[in-house]
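Example record for the data management plan.
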Amino acid sequence: MLSLSNSTLKLFLECPRCFWLHFNKKISRPRGIFPTLPTGMDSVIKNYFNFYRNIGELPPLISGKVEGKLADISLNLNFVDSDNDLKITGKLDECLVLNDGIYIPLDHKTRSSLPNKVEYSRNYYQTQMDTYTLLLQKNGYSTRNQAYIVYYSPARGELHKGVPFEVEVHSIPTSPDKAFSLYQSAKSCLEGELPPSSTDCEFCLWQKEVSQF
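Corresponding structural encoding:
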């Protein structure tokens, strides 16, 4: 059974050829340097949220910016589409639940500066949040096709007192049906012949140039 996640779907959307080679020929893109600071910040933020989950309150950083309370559910979700021999997996950063039992996925993003415009979230993280909504629905949770993305950016302050952060919350509509369709398209891609590269795939462009020597 083929197992796909948001990260592998992202590869498919960036370049079907790289995606096909990754799965069918085990030829992966070269890995660059992985920044460890965002990983460390992610751990700090999640521990911060878990503290407030345990006392039944919204963290002060997002209180008044979002609805509901922190949900007490497993954030590791998967869905098996037996008809298509496909498994979709994902790990939510966080999830909120409203008084009426509606669940809303929430994701943390750290940046050097706040993006301000909601279009940024829709351009870069739409498919990810579509996937999380899909997984919630397929696991029996009611949603209203909405997601929150919380941005954290370091602010000026006295560092010996701790690093202050500015916070901005974007609420975006989600389409789980669109996500499901993309996963089906990705699986179909793997079942066919080697597809052409995306015109803007830097990896394939580099390979094409190097092959001339």
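Summary line stored alongside the record: The radius of gyration is 19 Å.
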